[in-house]
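User: Hi! Is it possible to get a structure for several chains at once, not just one? Here's what I have:
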Amino acid sequence: MSESYCFIDALLKRPVSRTPVWFMRQAGRYLPEYRQVRQRAGSFMSLCTHPELACEVTLQPLRRFRLDAAILFSDILTIPDAMGLGLAFKEGEGPCFERPVRSAEDIERLPAIDPEADLGYVMDAVRLIRRELNGKIPLIGFAGSPWTLATYMVEGGSSRDFRRVKTLMYQRPELMSRLLDKLSLAVADYLNAQIAAGAQAVMLFDTWGGVLTPVDYRNFSLEAARKVRQRLNTEKDGGRIPTILFTKGGGQWLEAQSRAGFDALGLDWTCDIGQARRRVGGQVALQGNLDPITLFAPPEVIRDRVADVLRGYGPGTGHVFNLGHGILPTVEPAHVEAMVEAVHELSPPLHR
Amino acid sequence: MSESYCFIDALLKRPVSRTPVWFMRQAGRYLPEYRQVRQRAGSFMSLCTHPELACEVTLQPLRRFRLDAAILFSDILTIPDAMGLGLAFKEGEGPCFERPVRSAEDIERLPAIDPEADLGYVMDAVRLIRRELNGKIPLIGFAGSPWTLATYMVEGGSSRDFRRVKTLMYQRPELMSRLLDKLSLAVADYLNAQIAAGAQAVMLFDTWGGVLTPVDYRNFSLEAARKVRQRLNTEKDGGRIPTILFTKGGGQWLEAQSRAGFDALGLDWTCDIGQARRRVGGQVALQGNLDPITLFAPPEVIRDRVADVLRGYGPGTGHVFNLGHGILPTVEPAHVEAMVEAVHELSPPLHR
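Assistant: Yes, the chains can be modeled jointly so their relative placement is included. Here is the combined structure:
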């Protein structure tokens, strides 16, 4: 790796000249050009499974905004889908599985996955995007965390109260650990295949870690994430592949997260990023954390709030600017531009 | 007040011989006798507006379980309903308002409320329940926090992302403060009327405080709660009326909450109650915080988890046992009994 990317450097806490910026769901429905491709594709999963379409939507936001990273267009549920659970997206209802996992037998029956064979469309997309990016900015690969995948697999879809998956955990903790162990292996193999195909950083999305008690978070969600991290091949061609753990609603547990082996932690908008920096004590970089709803405010308000996040983190490397959660589909692209440009304009003084 | 109640004593950090216990939504759908009365009443609001029905369902859980407090059966949205927003409960959709608050004019137009005149059914229920309780256990009054009421009033109902109410806050912070000021007055007057009618403790439910950034939480939600607290008449007949603030998802901000003037803070299940006790430094009592989903596990697991919460808080007064959020409608009453009995059985050694 002879190139130097400020995104990678910030994650590894090397000096940068400005704060890098990208944002969750940057390839998405708020862009009219995305909606066009999505309509042509016919379904969300068809976008994911056709590498040339996944590549096209991955690149779209980069043509509009000065972003410092691209992120693979895909979905966290590709792994359970490859395991045979039968993923479907019902309009207005979110993802659901035809064959949820409910019993010891269901868990034992889950097959190991071979990422190149079973999820080749993802690796093909990674390779194609890398070729198209041509070294301009790095590409982030990602996966859902084992716990977050388990919530969808046991509930059979989205959930408000996580009754089924938590009841399984409370009632049969050994079964939950068995499920998470299987998923940890699959997630690690999947991310390693993305790295082998060209992903230059990887992020683990623990979207539902925050619904647990502190002790269950540590014993189940974080423990499984740690196992994923341990299996990752993060040295490649003499360079480092940085790793990011994002736990939505996990702001109370940053100290524990910072000891799980990841280079960086993602923060949602309920965290004070300055306090978070002090709490993790320089062990990890931080990524975040503007409230996505800020993007509905006028550009001058967006700029002020970007300034608050940058100032909140303070001077020095180790910060990647991002939203605290995915962008909403009804945001105006011009407001996104205000955010991105504010980071470009306001961050250099913090790195002198 | 010549009686001594362990619930009141624990909130005021006076010595108790065991940890008091009650739980959120203890009068509710998990009880078959509640479902019967609810069906006869025809609608949820009809239960609230008929004092004899509200009284009946308030008393139902006390006949089954050894609880240390009753809580008024009502809804947090009675205030905006009394302000003329037109509250309706659509089956499966939750509450909604026919006339949401969206503009400066809408906010200015909101009338002040006279609790005895406009919400007399609530005060009648309080008086009736007090008479029926006959001094056996104390009665808790409650209200929604100004911020939480504002979310429903601006969104027009429940929300996933709070886009409208947050956009109003980001775009026109002075309007949001004006709305919250009006609501702070109304909520304080409402709680004072409940106290005058006989409520022996009052609780403010900030169900949606946790969706804010730290700075917005302090400036809007907590500031409005502080204003409510300042106006409360908490001395009555020579005794103290304890006050409780519960912010769901507010575990990162306990220090700030502990300085808002309340006697106790409610904790959801994502908080470590032992750490919380150290963080608030003895300034306030704590109420909580078993994960409501624990009640789907077998009784022996429930008992272990109750023990964890009690041991987590540790020895001494200042803890009221509760769930970390409302009980779910599909819980078995026998599992509730296991929880309540575990508190009775396991807590006395902590108070010797």
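The mean pLDDT of chain A is 97. The longest strand of chain A covers residues 139-144.

User: Great, thank you!
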